Amino acid sequence: MASIVSAVPAASSDSALAHFRSAFAYETDCADVHAAIASGQQDFVLFDVRSLDAYAQGHVPGALHMPYRKMVDIKLRDFPADTLFVVYCAGPHCNGAHRGAERLAGLGRPVKLMIGGVTGWRDEGFALAVGDAP
Predict the structure, then answer these.
(1) Reduced to 3 states, what is the DSSP secondary structure of residue 89?
(2) 20 to 30 Å CA-CA from 49: which of 12, 20, 117, 131?
(3) How confident is the model at residue 1, as a pLDDT?
(4) Shortest CA distance to 109 belongs to which of 78, 88, 84, 72?
(5) Residue 44's closest CA among 10, 80, 72?
(6) Cα–Cα distances in Å, from 100 out to 19, 37, 59, 70, 88?
(7) What's the chain's Rg over C-alpha atoms?
């Protein structure tokens, strides 16, 4: 008798390879974001989509506060059209980053999701910045 895990057969290796390779076009992780920031190679804008209170209590250093509901053309006008945005929220239990990524993509903007959000950032042992949004 098959387990719940194996009841649906795994995808072919070719299909799995395409699927997992394509994920990198949509997401990045906390360690890669941290490495880019720490090395001075940050070639993206980082948006924290959580509430202002949550942002003020602790956010990824250098992140801008930008709730997904406020992501509109006029708010993005100062960023060149090819700016890569990376969005995050509280963590895997929160869909705010997905909503932000959807909003940015709908506006024709390049976007990736930082998987793990603040929870992942902390789990990696990285420090948060504290304070109000600029």
Answers:
(1) coil
(2) 20
(3) 83
(4) 84
(5) 80
(6) 22, 21, 16, 9, 8
(7) 17
**Angle (CA) 81 86 90, round 5°:** 145
Angle at 28 between CA 101 and CA 72, to 5 degrees: 20
Side chain identity at residue 109, one-letter code: R
What is the pTM for the complete model shown? Answer: 0.92
Give 85's strand partners: 45, 111
**Residue 45 · residue 64 · CB < 8 Å:** yes
Task: Tell me what pLDDT residue 2 has.
Answer: 85
Distance CA(78)–CA(31), nearest Å, equals: 28
Taking only the tens of pLDDT, the chain with its 134 residues reads 889 999 999 999 999 999 999 999 999 999 999 999 999 999 999 999 999 999 999 999 999 999 999 999 999 999 999 999 999 999 999 999 999 999 999 999 999 999 999 999 999 999 999 987 66
**Residues 91, 95, 97, 98, CA torsion sign:** positive
Helices (H), the chain: 13-23, 30-38, 52-57, 73-76, 96-106, 117-123
